[in-house]
Design brief:
Elements: H1 3-23, H2 28-39, H3 50-70, H4 83-105, H5 110-121, H6 125-134, H7 141-167, H8 171-198, H9 203-207, H10 210-230, H11 235-246, H12 252-276, H13 287-312, H14 316-325, H15 331-342, H16 348-370, H17 372-379, H18 389-393, E1 403-406, H19 411-422, E2 426-430, H20 433-441, E3 446-448, H21 454-459, E4 467-470, H22 475-488, E5 493-497, H23 501-509, E6 514-516, H24 518-531, H25 534-556
Parallel strand pairs: 1-2, 1-4, 2-3, 4-5, 5-6
Helix pairs in contact: 1-2, 2-12, 3-6, 3-10, 3-11, 3-12, 4-5, 4-7, 4-13, 5-15, 6-7, 6-16, 7-8, 7-14, 7-15, 8-11, 10-11, 13-14, 13-16, 15-16, 24-25
Length: 566
């Protein structure tokens, strides 16, 4: 059949299976992979236009990473440094070592074990970013940690692929690697100059036509990905770099919103293609080995990340959410072992094993990511070994605060300034160690802690506070905090934040004094001003200059408004 008919049938099947997944309340990615299995050689065998669909898949990956880059403003990249670097580097080192030793223990040769250890190290950028974007949690602390880990993994993966492809060339190969490093430095300098000097000057020109803006952004993203690919880098790194360059422009958010439907289509094709490549028949030949390695990927790998997160100063919940997000191996892993097969370092059986592990890890981690909050609630008691005891011991003698604030970024920042000026007995709590360090240096009484930690809440005397404020949007966390306060004190004022109407009503039923819904609150505020007529308009105009200065200050502090909304 023609490529058009084949693609049409695949989309019809994907829609049908995805609809079934929705009825069963299962992740849609599982439906896409199952569609691939159905259309692949194992079942219906209608997946013939592999080259065309592989190109579609590559476009989907490029667009996804381009969109992610649009939200990585270089001025805000400091959020991905420090503690995140500890987790990222440690994860790569320890996962590689553990994977290598496991492979050796299972009887693989040393050279093959090196490949397997490296393949187990990488997590799937496209899966993690797709699912966290769907959950609107890329802006959360654990989402930022996951992105930081993925970025470093992609760089290491690119270097590994370059080394393997040139390693058999002796001195020539070494010179080629040096050449690629020089090219990378040159590209970074050129992109920086274009991003800071050229693109901002073209803003008005692009803004005149939304159609041209869409066309330019697509050409820029795919064009830069192609240039990077031709210079010896991966398409993924090129697309990400193109997005970061555009992140400095005022139209980055508009570009992102316009490209999302296109991204969704091509990403569906990517997962269908992955499913079609599964060799179910070959699994029986290495079923035991497959299960051991799969257990390592979905259990041991997250534990490594949780341990490193504890060392970096994060709470056990942040470590768990970051670890469960990265509990799979990457499409890079398949490329890695295929290159090993091409150079004669690996046999087909090893390639089949890694391919099956990639599929299995993606399927399991999809559930981990989608149901991570519920899993954490179930596993919290046995995750106590990942608690940061030092941080709770520091506040063990602190009680009787009049006001306790949970969450110090964005909305929390305004509360901090207010109570700091009033000089009340005020305690701010946050689970980002870097945020805590900054606030303490600024003279704010701020402590590191987790609103999900019952022992911590007892130690800071949350039940004795006259006013408890949470700017955290996680519903389960707020319900837990509310119950702890109300168990001790029925008269205290508890102000919570929510992003959902039904969840807000549940918080009110649980005894919340007031629930902040940011978007509704803004609409109510503006409506009240408009109702005041001419005096209200004058009042709003008068406050304009103050608001501009306020926003500039928040920008200097690195605060950003959530952009991952769909």
């Amino acid at each position: 059949m023609s490529t058009f008919v084949e693609l049409s049938l695949i989309l019809v099947l994907a829609t049908t299976v995805a609809g079934l997944m929705r009825l069963l309340r299962q992740p849609l990615i599982v439906g896409y992979i199952l569609t691939g299995v159905l259309v692949g050689p194992q079942v219906l065998n209608i997946f013939a236009s592999t080259e065309t669909l592989s190109v579609f898949s590559e476009i989907g990956i490029a667009i996804l990473l381009f969109i992610v880059g649009l939200h990585l403003n270089p001025r805000e990249l400091k959020e991905y440094g420090g503690s995140t670097l500890i987790v990222s580097l440690g994860q790569i080192i320890f996962t590689f070592m553990a994977g290598f030793l496991l492979a050796r223990g299972l009887g693989f040769e040393a050279g093959v074990s090196l490949y397997i250890g490296l393949a187990l190290t990488f997590s799937s950028t496209i899966v993690v970013l797709k699912l966290l974007t769907d959950k609107k949690e890329l802006e959360k602390l654990y989402g930022k940690i996951a992105i930081g880990v993925l970025l470093l993994q992609d760089i290491v993966a690119a270097v590994a692929l370059i080394v393997i492809s040139t390693g058999s060339q002796g001195q020539t190969g070494g010179l080629q690697i040096l050449g690629i490093v020089i090219k990378g430095i040159a590209l970074t300098i050129v992109l920086s100059l274009v991003a800071t000097r050229v693109l901002p000057r073209l803003s008005k020109f692009f803004a005149k036509s939304q159609e041209f803006l869409f066309l330019f952004s697509l050409a820029w993203g795919l064009g830069m990905a192609a240039i990077f690919h031709e210079l010896g880098f991966s398409v993924e790194i090129g697309a990400l770099a193109a997005g970061v360059a555009l992140a400095l422009t005022p139209y980055s958010q508009e570009v992102s919103s316009r490209l999302k439907p296109l991204r969704d289509f091509f990403v569906v094709v990517f997962f269908v293609t992955l499913g079609a490549g599964m060799n179910l028949g070959g699994l029986k030949n290495f079923a035991g080995t497959f299960l051991v390695f799969l257990a390592f990927i979905v259990l041991v790998k997250p534990v490594i990340i949780m341990g490193l997160s504890k060392i970096a100063g994060y709470t056990k919940k942040t470590g768990f959410l970051a670890g469960s997000s990265l509990a799979q191996i990457s499409e890079f892993s398949i490329i890695l072992v295929l290159m090993g097969l091409k150079t004669g370092h690996l046999d087909q059986a090893t390639v089949s094993l890694i391919t099956a592990l990639t599929m299995g890890g993606i399927l399991v981690s999809t559930y981990f990511i989608n149901f991570s909050d519920k899993l954490y609630s179930l596993l919290a008691p046995i995750l106590r070994i990942f608690d940061n005891k030092e941080s709770t011991e520091k506040v063990s003698n602190l009680t009787n605060y009049e006001v306790i604030l949970f969450g110090c970024n964005r909305t929390g920042y305004d509360f901090i300034q207010t109570y700091k000026d009033l000089g009340m007995k005020f305690l701010a709590v946050d689970f980002d160690p870097e945020t805590v360090a900054e606030l303490v240096a600024d003279g704010v009484n701020c402590k590191y802690g987790d609103a999900d930690d019952s022992d911590f809440l007892e130690e800071i005397g949350v039940g004795e506070a006259e006013l408890v404020i949470s700017t955290i949007s996680e519903h389960e966390t707020n319900m837990h905090l509310l119950k702890k306060v109300r168990t001790k004190n029925e008269n205290s004022t508890v102000i919570l934040m929510s992003q959902d109407v039904a969840e807000s009503l549940e918080l009110y039923e649980g005894g919340a004094s007031y629930v902040i819904l940011p978007h509704f609150l803004a609409g109510t505020y503006v409506t009240e001003i408009v109702k005041m007529g001419e005096s209200g308009v004058k009042k709003m105009t008068k406050r304009r200059e103050d608001h501009v200065e306020y926003l500039k200050k928040r920008k200097r502090l690195g605060h950003s408004y959530p952009r991952y909304t769909q």
